[in-house]
Design a protein that fits this description.
Elements (H helix, E strand, L loop, with lengths): L2 H9 L12 H10 L4 H13 L3 H14 L4 H14 L2 H14 L4 H11 L11 H13 L13
Helix pairs in contact: 1-3, 3-4, 3-5, 4-5, 5-6, 5-7, 6-7
Amino acid sequence: MGLMLALTLSIGLPFAGYCSALSIAKVDKIADDRPDNLKVQYQVAKAFNQVGEPDRALPRANRALALAPDNPKLLTLRANINYKLGDFTGAEVDARAALGKDPKNAQAFSLLKLSQGRAGQNAPPPAPAQAAASAAQTARNPAAPAAPPAAVL
């Protein structure tokens, strides 16, 4: 889905005439011009996230959360953005907070489970050569203890 279509559907901008003319800078300007409008901040963050721009979505999600810090939809959105950015610890924290506000939030629950095993792994996975070296080390020393399983709720 294109950014303009996502934004149009999200905040109700008329599609004809605007979508082809709007650019990412204009979308940012819409949000900049309405810093205290929760709906605009949320919808712009959601639209950027939907089109694969989580780095642009995060500041908007943070702004929306500053306006409504206990909103489980906003916490879930930021958890999703953090997950896409590789911040699994942040994703887990936000997903837990969202579930604290709305225990039936299925998306937050899914993000929590996806993030739990990866929390603390905010770096990219090791390169294949590093993984092979680690496997070779384990093969030479089979008595080495295995890593503990991830904690489960």
